[in-house]
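Give me the fold.
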Amino acid sequence: MKIVVVGTGYVGLVTGTCFADVGIDVTCIDVNKEKIDNLNKGIIPIYEPGLEQMVHRNVQKDRLHFATKLKDVLEGADVVFSAVGTPPDEDGSADLKYVLEVAREVGRHMEDYKLVVTKSTVPVGTAAKVRKALQEELDKRGVNIQFDVASNPEFLKEGDAINDFLKPDRIVVGTESKKAEDIMAKLYKPFTMNGHPVIFMDVPSAEMTKYAANSMLATKISFMNDIANLCEVVGADVNMVRKGIGTDSRIGRKFIYPGIGYGGSCFPKDVKALIRTANEYKYKLRVLQAVEDVNETQKSVLFNKAMKYFGDDLSGKTFGLWGLSFKPQTDDMREAPALVLIDKLLEAGANVKAYDPVAMDEAKRRLGEDKVELAKDQYEALIDVDALMIATEWSEFKYPNFNVIKKLMKKPVIFDGRNVYDIEEMRDLGFNYFCIGIDTTKK
């Protein structure tokens, strides 16, 4: 088989590379010539564990190719995956202009049957718009060429995307015809031979499944953060509560770790988009609106703790910040809680020294050179600071040299937004330690 993947972001590049790794001829398209030139040189635009080696391997085996023009590679392609961005509009709805432009481009240049598959996260009803846009281009040409549109939402975790693709919990495919279903079944056969199921359904249901899945995970996070905040007030220990409910098989242990809110390219955008979709149909998603409200509030928790500790005056104070990406194992800072924290600290007149294991280049791009001081390592970020704040639970932050930390800092104060450390150990070491969901001021 031969496929084309349009878009070389997290979804597109991982999708194309993993398909190539099982022997499929893949061409990845992106209008960004610099990005494509770099990919052809072996320079990967994103940080994703294992991806660089896989790209190099499949390029060398002549199974993975990169180009800038879709029309040049359509001939002979069986499937065109649309994995372009769907950024949120100001009203929270997903912007489909790139998705629809891919459909139009296919319609302008296709000469035989194509299966067009939306891989991007798109609202219910997008496939119908894709079909309409493609058909309009065929009508302009005065040609009658058969095509199908399908939905194949991705369920990839940044930081573990390759493993998620190669060993998926499930593969969701929405189709409109038996022919499209057969093509998708053949395409995913290498992944289903090990027992990973393909769940075929209608297209609107597939589109909704993606939003429902992300919204459920976001709900678990916000619920646990809400419970954590209550635990601090009533004197309960959220870590004990988490263990108590996580052993219930109906709830499970995943996504119930308290923290300072979710970020990234998926959860914030998808929750907003689903709320907007419901509003368009005059239905109010009250639970999801609360999920979003709790998450936005949670991003300010560490700042509020600092204000309380320092007496509502942070002017002239300097904070060391560990972690800038929205989660470990990625350099993605989109909607990262650390960004909200930095803005609030700076607005309060404080200074920030920040460090992240892989997101420093992204931080320079987003924050510039003057907004915060970007440290060379985690310890440099603590020199003469009034407190340490932890925004991302990178592994290298879990077992630092606390003796060195105390010597570097002005005061032994830690605001832990990810509950990385043990409270009793921090007390024994002489730190004033504050975390999420536990009143650490009580002995």
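The mean pLDDT is 94.
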